[in-house]
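Support request, please re-run this one:
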Amino acid sequence: MAKIDIELKAMTSELIPGLVKVENESFSKPWTKEGFEAELENDTANFTAAVYNGQAVGYIGFHAVLDEGYVANIAVLPEYRRLGIADDLLKAALERSAEMRLSFLSLEVRKSNSAAIALYKKYGFETVGERKRFYSAPVEDAYIMTRYFTY
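Re-run finished. Output below.
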């Protein structure tokens, strides 16, 4: 499948069932419907959904506290991967981070997730540390990757 045109939308309660599907198909310990609903009430949360044909096919969520940004998750349904959707979501989060004048945006990534690591490097993230046994199911270490902003 070639690159598709998606619409990026702020997360709403109507999109949550689709986001739960993305979670369930992407992670061994997925977020729940209630977890997403709580983020709608969280003033630090910035969640953006990728919508295709009215269906949520991916999302990115980050939290901003003071001038620091932390990515909670980025995920795309398996059948929509490698179509540039994660790129679009990450670019949107970086643009929003810059609008908010954040000093940095940071995230954790499984050491074995070479595709995600390559994506993050493409957008200026650097490996700044490690978290031992950060992930479970399966247990794995994480890299801490950070993109710094200068204004």
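The helical segments are 16-26, 33-40, 85-99, 114-122. The chain has a mean pLDDT of 95.
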